[in-house]
Amino acid sequence: MDDETDMSSIGYTMTLGAFYKPKRGLCPPLFVDFDSDRANIGIMGSMQAKNDLRDLAFSLGASAFGVCEVGGLVENIHPEIREKAREIPYAISIGIEVQKAVMDTLTDRPNEIYKAHYRAINTRLDDMTFSLAQAISGKGGNSIPIPASKVLTRYPMIGHLNHREFAYKSGIGWRGKNNLLIHPEFGGRVRLATILTDLDLEPDQPLDQNCGVCKACGKRCPAGAIGQTPEEFDLDKCREQVTFFSRDKNFGHLICGLCLNCCPGKKKGKNEKQ
To answer: What are phi and psi of 3, to 5 degrees?
Structure first.
């Protein structure tokens, strides 16, 4: 909520509480719970701020939005920003759908149209996190927008944080067998970015779903890196495969994408809880 709170939205209790002026002949309330009123204002303020930022994100082209508490995930944040991140309680996760028609052009390897689309989405995500950070600043908060696809080291391949884990905790999707976030509508076809912030926001809850009996991505993976659970995913095999694709024919980008367009997301008969 903005600093100039709209008192008309706070509700009946506050109207008849701290701001009540009794008319002649009427008895004023006998009890006003100021602590409860302040708590209600805080909850409504965090929800309004979250709604404002969500509306902004979707107006800029986001396909998914969620909020979580940073909590224990701070220990997995890169040392470059970890100490500052300890002071920041919340994270906003945003996602953009990767167009299915683009993914459908892939046969046995990534191609140039997918590479261009991939880069364009990452650029758009970075622009969104910058705009959201500006909006947070306008509401009196601080934030650290995290790049969508910034690789700090190749071996091991590490960024500032794991966008998938924050998106999972924010309720955007679940952990897939292919080590990616699976969105209920878009499946694996979603790119992610994160904003860390101290602005008070109402957190979302993780989805109680998984891939169930679906094995589509495992059948499509050229590296044989995908097992029956997310924990069985073989990162080394995946890295070797994308490195080969990057070097082959001077493709020049560490991507694959073959496990994305075959993922159905939430589909009847495919998401029974294991």
So the answer is: -60, -40
Residue 58 counted as domain residue: yes
Angle between helices 112-138 and 34-59 (to 10 degrees): 150
Q: Which residues are CB-neighbours of 57 under 8 A, at least 6 positions away? A: 65, 92, 94, 128, 132
Q: Are strands 174-175 and 143-146 parallel, antiparallel or unpaired?
A: unpaired
Measured distance CA(274)–CA(272) in Å, rounded = 6
CA separation for the pair 250, 235 (Å, rounded): 23
DSSP code at position 59: H
Q: What is the domain range of residue 89?
A: 40-250
Confirm whether 259 is domain-assigned: no
- Strands 174-175 and 90-97 come out as unpaired
With contact defined as beta carbons under 8 Å apart, do 31 and 47 qualify? Answer: no
Give the chain's domain count. 1
Q: Is 29 contained in some domain?
A: no
Contact 231, 178 (CB under 8 A): no
Adjacent-strand bridge partners of 96: 191
- Give the model confidence (pLDDT) of 77-94 as tens digits: 999 999 999 999 999 999
Q: What is the pTM of this model?
A: 0.81
- Would the CA dihedral through 151, 98, 100, 166 be positive or negative? positive
Is residue 16, in this structure, part of any structural domain at all? no
Amino acid at 83: E
Are 29 and 21 within 8 A, CB to CB? no
pLDDT at 43: 60
Largest CA distance in the chain: 88
Main-chain phi, psi angles of 69, to 5 degrees? -85, 140
- pLDDT attached to residue 44: 67
